[in-house]
Amino acid sequence: MSAYEPKSNEKVIIFGPTGAVGRAAAFAASNAGAKVYLAMRDPSKAIPGLNQNDEQTAGLTRLRADLTDPTSLKQAIAESGATRAYVYTIFNSIDSMRSSFDALKEAGVKFVVLLSSHSVKGYARDAVNHEEMNFIPHVHASAEIALEESGIEDFVAVRPAFFNSNIMWWKEGIKKGEVQLLWGGKGGNEGEKEREGEKVVMLDWIAPEDIGTVCGRLLAYPELRQSHKGKVMYLNGPKLLSLRQGLEIVAKIVNHPIHITSISAEDFINSSILPRPVAEAVVQGWKENSGPSVEGQEERGMYPKSEYGEAVGNLRRYLGKEPMQFEEWAQKNNYLFD
């Protein structure tokens, strides 16, 4: 802990601690000295990657609460006394989570860190976030709007891009050594040298643990929040890689070859483990933000150079250390590929 980070005395509540981001947020806030409460529908449920000894050492306290149940939210805040909350976006909320945010405000929450998405561009109300087929940005942007309209004193919508854990979309193929990719690129050590006119999707590969650590530190240290202008924070991983390059890294870690073939957008949608609306939105996002590589053209794709540099800078600054490279993340989480 550096000199400008005194021990926190905040009371923090984390919703979704069974997820990698929520779990990391809980530990980051606890390590900073905050009193951390874990809000769970079922407090007896095991939390992946968290054993009882670690939980007790960190002083984490479980509470029963359902982010879709405003009454339970009020009870959890009353019991914990938390004034700062980490919240994730609920995709099937009928009111874009407005009733949940209203309940948190009424119960005494002053600051919220909302896990949103890089797919939301500019201001949440901008029309581009609510176009037909843009399911993912629409859901996240609508939650951001609901949070703002709730009148909660302060919030930050954290907008990360491509989670490292999304590699699990191809888990079964990885195990079989046969993966079909949409716009995966040529890959290899020399980078993207695809055939002329062939699309390739470059992705930032950000560790969920790093996202959660940023969220937890924002909750624990009000001065970090004050150092960030605005209510939106983009986060990007430290290195752009194609899907093929990501799978080449995984192949080395699992120690068996992965044969990669190309498929069409429709085949990706039909074969994906993702719900069809999500798969369609993924394809739409990749389609709009990909293209053949052009030497010297640095402003192409979903990561324009200036915006990408700022988003990686945010990750480094609020993480307090160098971000995790995809290879390091995959090695630490190699059990996921079993």
From TrEMBL:
<dbReference type="InterPro" id="IPR036291">
    <property type="entry name" value="NAD(P)-bd_dom_sf"/>
</dbReference>
<dbReference type="InterPro" id="IPR051604">
    <property type="entry name" value="Ergot_Alk_Oxidoreductase"/>
</dbReference>
<feature type="domain" description="NmrA-like">
    <location>
        <begin position="9"/>
        <end position="283"/>
    </location>
</feature>
<protein>
    <submittedName>
        <fullName>NAD(P)-binding protein</fullName>
    </submittedName>
</protein>
<dbReference type="Pfam" id="PF05368">
    <property type="entry name" value="NmrA"/>
</dbReference>
<dbReference type="InterPro" id="IPR008030">
    <property type="entry name" value="NmrA-like"/>
</dbReference>
